[in-house]
């Protein structure tokens, strides 16, 4: 065998030896890397999930009425269960429908799980109280300046009721009314605001909106919002020769 052939054989054998020695480490390293990639992807998936939360942390509820608890940011693979601390006061079904059974306060605990693992535990305090019997506005007529905001005052009986009235306006383009009874004068005109209870008791206040009236006395809590009026078209005068 010539020297060149021997040299060639040694080179081939050396290459094969290096390949055999390093192949297991390369394969093992690949497996470790793949496992790490899966774990990192799983961790990233959990990190990108938004915070699980309830629509309310506490709620006043009239005896005999129901309210829907909602859980936000729950994934399709997670399950939600509900439990009341006192079913004699507050009951809750598997869909989060809460019912005021008797006057008192109980806590509804919401548990979110993924398989057997608890992802989060949330709580909502439910205060069950008496319904309202009657309601009336302290003023049946009111004048407001355009852009003025004011909270309509009313008397509700009994004073310790947990019920809140529902408000509406006959023309929200003139007077808008919030869920808390705050009126906003939107445009000049007349509109009637109603407040109604669950037992269909109704009270009303007729509101007249004017552009300007220096005799109107503002009360604490009143404010104005800017009113935008269309810009007047500019006219150019031409002189005659």
Automatic annotation (TrEMBL):
Residues 220-241 are annotated as: Disordered. It comes from the Bacteria. Residues 48-122, 131-206 form the BIG2 domain. Residues 232-241 have a biased composition (Polar residues). This is Ig domain protein group 2 domain protein. It comes from Lachnoclostridium phytofermentans (strain ATCC 700394 / DSM 18823 / ISDg) (Clostridium phytofermentans).
């Amino acid at each position: 065998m010539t020297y060149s052939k021997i040299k060639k054989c040694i080179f081939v054998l050396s290459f094969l030896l290096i390949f055999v020695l390093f192949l297991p480490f390369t394969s093992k390293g690949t497996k470790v890397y793949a496992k790490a990639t899966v774990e990192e992807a799983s961790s990233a998936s959990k990190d990108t999930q938004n915070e699980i939360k309830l629509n309310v942390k506490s709620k006043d509820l009239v005896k005999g009425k129901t309210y829907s608890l909602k859980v936000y940011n729950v994934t399709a693979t997670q399950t939600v269960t509900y439990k009341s601390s006192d079913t004699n006061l507050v009951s809750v079904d598997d869909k989060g429908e809460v019912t005021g059974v008797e006057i008192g306060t109980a806590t509804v605990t919401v548990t979110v799980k993924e398989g057997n693992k608890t992802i989060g535990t949330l709580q909502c305090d439910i205060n069950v109280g008496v319904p309202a019997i009657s309601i009336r506005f302290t003023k049946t007529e009111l004048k407001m300046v355009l852009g003025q905001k004011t909270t309509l005052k009313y008397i509700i009986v009994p004073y310790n009721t947990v019920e809140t009235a529902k408000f509406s306006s006959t023309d929200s383009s003139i007077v808008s009314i919030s869920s808390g009874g705050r009126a906003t004068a939107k445009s000049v005109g007349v509109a009637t605001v109603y407040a109604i209870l669950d037992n269909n008791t109704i009270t009303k206040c007729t509101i007249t909106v004017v552009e300007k009236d220096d005799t109107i006395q503002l009360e604490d809590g009143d404010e104005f919002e800017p009113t935008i009026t269309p810009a007047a078209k500019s006219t150019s005068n031409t002189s005659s020769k």
